[in-house]
Structure to design on (881 residues):
């Protein structure tokens, strides 16, 4: 820490207030740096000791130009680590620094307490430095060009991870075999036909006395159990057994890579997982930090002479522009609305069933639970669940939110609706999987020729085909055999295939499942 | 030591310029950033490389907005009316100069070793894992080796033999103190006699601009003086230099005398890197005057300057005799560089001839 006396005094004060408000954060270390240094650290994604790669240089170039022409300026930079590192720009005025410090404590609290960050490595600064050392050594041994080219390929795929993997297990721990304890009752006809299966039992049938059987094992339940069982059997012949969203992991486990290549791929994957929660909680995280800088500054820290500057910068941070959504603004307003609703008890049945407009306006149960509620929200939610749970019509109206569409006639965007359900749907659409397409490995031995088959889970938006083709090339270079991806264009299924660097597109049969008939087990 | 990021930045620029990693060349996009300079919008070039990803195409025509009013078409879409602001492309001059330097393979200029100019002082302040062998830090290296052997359990106190491997090596690293500036002066002389037409002056203008750009990238401060001459010489400002149309005879020695005087009074050779440039169509008044020029060059101009450059612009009226005379009298002196500029396409070759020696 290299703060000046004034700044250190301000920091101590702000930290005290933050703790009094109930924020709970890692020790936070502030560094005072000039703009060159700040841009450098920012270009490295916050880690001054990262591995060498040209894209950091590109980012630095962009930041430097933006700064030099007065177009953009970084105010704060904070790293999820224990201790938290935060950077302050030397040239900022004292009131800016205070605002940033209060903001940073908000972020730190969020990093420490939000469940989506629970799996992240809190010693990431050290780990990044290790990654840097590893890559530098590899570059020394294998040549900069070769390692860098491989790194580029890995980075092209670094969005193909499974952001929820840390929280749930997709593969069952042990094979949950069919329960064969069931008595009586003929199994489904198809189950009997299968070889090596205990013919007598319907899959999934629970043990029950004859007269209770109808209730314990209703037909629908048996059907669903049978279906699951069929799927399981069908999967047995497949590789991977079920579609695998963590494409990087699949490549790591099964692609013919050299050891150093595995090392590189695994560290790229590790970093991708580290950064994933930040994309999953952008609105929440920025909203939370803004809520706290505003609260701490306006209630405790601001001096009279600083009010105007603070208001100016605060407003700048929260400014909205037409057709674009500011995560700071949406986040802070949602927290405030939650706080108000829980303070006044405006939730639950009593509130939703209250029809009288006048009553709604005066609705106040004086519960004062708002603060506690937002602390709970910041612990449990991600952007998707946050917006899904708390965005209602009142909020949309108050915030003047709308959905816009491009009018096909004029080609100009127009407001299509202000209905909160549509707004929410549209918002969630963009937030799901952090705005990235979901791509899975469906077959690691496609056509029984060792080819890799990926699938884009189509949800309404098409892939950029040119880019998809280029990405496929990268995948092919890793996989060593031709690769393909199925997706949809204009409502029709297509298969993009890349063999020896040549990308070809072919249409798929409408059902999309015909390819897999072979493994049906008949 | 330079910033860690500079290495990445250099590499990025090299890729953009297609010098390394050709396979990435097709992902280079010529982006731009919009800035404001007074009333005008300026475009700041911002090349980028976008690694391919699986991502959504651009078929999303809807979104969520917040606030008053209608959404506006994005910046990427064409507006209905032509822009009211002039759109200038702003390329930083240093980048232009670097491009020029690369294109012409100009060597970086070695400033003259002047007694006043203190060489940049490096101080050893840090330790690095990489470096030249001559800077190997023996103690640290051995310590690292010992540590490794202790961890690996291969160290035997009875036989304390430490064998460093490559990974153990540590090197001293240094920080450079800001070097005192080396300063340069450029003196442009142009013949504005009747035989130099508009086209000839334009050529001189373009060439002088590029030479300026290059020299500015090489020296922190650059003094520029402008001299025009016909039968008599005088010092003028930049605008006059480029736009003056004089007529009359040509007495080159007048310019050289003024130049020599300037160098004596303002730019003594001990403290300055001086670059006189002279452009003319090569039609001097008399042979006697040419002799006087050669004498001035030998006695004052050449000893006092890094390089004296004479560019001869071909014109319909000029005889081009002056260059021949110079080459004959002083051709062996490598401080004198002469070049012939037949037309606009000859500018680059001429710049290369002038600056290609890195003096």
């Amino acid at each position: 820490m290299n703060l000046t006396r004034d700044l250190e005094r301000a920091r101590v004060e702000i930290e005290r207030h933050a703790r009094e408000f109930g924020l709970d954060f890692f020790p936070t270390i502030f560094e005072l740096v000039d703009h060159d240094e700040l841009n450098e650290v920012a270009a490295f994604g916050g880690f001054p000791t990262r591995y060498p790669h040209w894209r950091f240089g590109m980012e630095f170039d962009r930041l430097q130009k933006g700064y030099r022409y007065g177009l953009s300026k970084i105010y704060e930079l904070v790293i999820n680590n224990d201790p938290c590192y935060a950077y302050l720009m030397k040239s900022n005025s004292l009131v800016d620094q205070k605002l940033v410090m209060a903001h940073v404590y908000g972020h730190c609290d969020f990093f420490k307490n939000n469940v989506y960050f629970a799996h992240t490595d809190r010693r990431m600064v050290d780990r990044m430095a290790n990654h840097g050392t590893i890559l530098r050594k590899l570059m020394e041994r294998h040549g900069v060009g070769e390692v860098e080219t491989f790194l580029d390929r890995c980075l092209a795929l670094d969005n193909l991870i499974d952001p929820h993997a840390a929280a749930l297990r997709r593969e069952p721990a042990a094979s949950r075999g069919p329960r064969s304890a069931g008595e009586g009752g003929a199994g489904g006809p198809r189950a009997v036909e299968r070889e090596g299966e205990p013919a007598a039992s319907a899959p999934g049938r629970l043990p029950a006395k004859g007269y209770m059987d109808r209730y314990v094992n209703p037909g629908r339940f048996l059907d669903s159990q049978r279906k699951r069982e069929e799927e399981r059997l069908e999967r047995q012949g497949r590789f991977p057994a079920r579609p695998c969203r963590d494409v990087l992991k699949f490549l790591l486990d099964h692609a013919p890579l050299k050891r150093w290549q595995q090392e590189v791929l695994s560290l790229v994957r590790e970093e991708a997982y580290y950064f994933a929660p930040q994309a999953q909680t952008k609105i929440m995280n920025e909203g939370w930090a803004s809520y706290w800088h505003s609260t701490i500054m306006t209630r405790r820290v601001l001096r009279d002479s600083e009010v105007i500057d603070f208001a100016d910068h605060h407003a700048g941070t929260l400014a909205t522009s037409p057709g674009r959504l500011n995560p700071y603004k949406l986040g802070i307003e949602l927290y405030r609305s939650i706080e108000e609703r829980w303070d006044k008890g405006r939730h639950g049945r009593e509130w939703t069933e209250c029809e009288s407009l006048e009553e709604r306006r005066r609705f106040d149960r004086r519960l004062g639970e708002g603060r506690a509620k937002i602390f709970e929200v910041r612990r449990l939610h991600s952007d998707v669940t946050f917006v899904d749970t708390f965005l209602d019509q009142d909020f949309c109206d108050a915030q003047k939110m709308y959905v816009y569409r491009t009018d096909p006639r004029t080609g100009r965007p127009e407001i299509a609706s202000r209905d909160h359900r549509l707004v929410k749907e549209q918002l969630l659409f963009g937030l799901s999987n952090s705005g990235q397409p979901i791509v899975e490995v469906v077959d690691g031995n496609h056509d029984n020729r060792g080819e890799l088959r990926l699938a884009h889970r189509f949800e309404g938006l098409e892939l950029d085909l040119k880019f998809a083709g280029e990405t496929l090339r990268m995948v092919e270079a890793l996989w060593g055999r031709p690769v393909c991806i199925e997706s949809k264009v204009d409502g029709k299924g297509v298969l993009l295939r890349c063999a020896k660097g040549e990308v070809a597109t072919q249409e798929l049969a409408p059902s999309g499942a015909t390819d897999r008939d072979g493994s049906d087990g008949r | 030591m330079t910033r860690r990021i500079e290495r990445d930045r250099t590499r990025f620029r090299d890729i953009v310029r297609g010098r390394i990693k050709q396979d990435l060349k097709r992902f280079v996009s010529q982006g731009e950033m919009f800035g404001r300079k007074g009333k005008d919008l300026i475009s700041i070039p911002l090349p980028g490389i976008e690694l391919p990803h699986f991502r959504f195409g651009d078929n999303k025509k809807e979104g969520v907005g917040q606030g008053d009013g209608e959404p506006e078409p994005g910046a990427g879409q064409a507006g209905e009316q032509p822009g009211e602001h002039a759109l200038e492309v702003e390329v930083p001059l240093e980048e232009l100069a670097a491009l020029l330097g690369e294109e012409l393979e100009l060597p970086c200029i070695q400033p003259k070793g002047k007694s006043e100019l203190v060489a940049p002082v490096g101080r050893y302040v840090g330790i690095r894992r990489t470096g030249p062998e001559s800077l190997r830090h023996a103690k640290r290296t051995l310590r690292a080796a010992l540590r490794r052997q202790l961890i690996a359990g291969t160290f035997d106190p009875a036989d304390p033999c430490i064998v460093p491997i490559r990974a153990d090596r540590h090197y001293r690293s240094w920080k450079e103190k800001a070097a005192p500036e080396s300063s340069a002066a450029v003196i442009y002389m142009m013949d504005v006699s009747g035989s130099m037409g508009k086209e000839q002056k334009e050529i001189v203008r373009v060439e002088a601009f590029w030479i300026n750009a290059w020299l500015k990238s090489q020296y922190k401060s650059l003094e520029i003086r402008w001299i025009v001459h016909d039968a008599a010489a005088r010092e003028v400002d930049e605008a006059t230099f480029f736009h003056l149309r004089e007529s009359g005879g040509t007495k080159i020695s007048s310019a050289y005398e003024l130049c020599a005087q300037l160098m004596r009074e303002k730019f003594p050779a001990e403290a300055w890197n001086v670059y006189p440039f002279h452009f003319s169509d090569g039609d001097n008044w008399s042979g006697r005057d040419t002799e006087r020029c050669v004498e001035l060059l030998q006695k004052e101009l050449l000893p006092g300057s890094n390089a004296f450059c004479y560019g001869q612009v071909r014109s319909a009226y000029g005889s081009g005799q002056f260059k021949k005379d110079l080459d004959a009298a002083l051709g062996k002196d490598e401080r004198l560089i002469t070049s012939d500029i037949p037309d606009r396409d000859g500018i680059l070759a001429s710049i290369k001839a002038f600056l290609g020696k890195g003096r």
About this structure: Residues 125-165+247-278 of chain A form one domain. The two ends of chain A are 69 Å apart (CA to CA). Chain A touches chain B through 77 residues (CB under 8 Å).
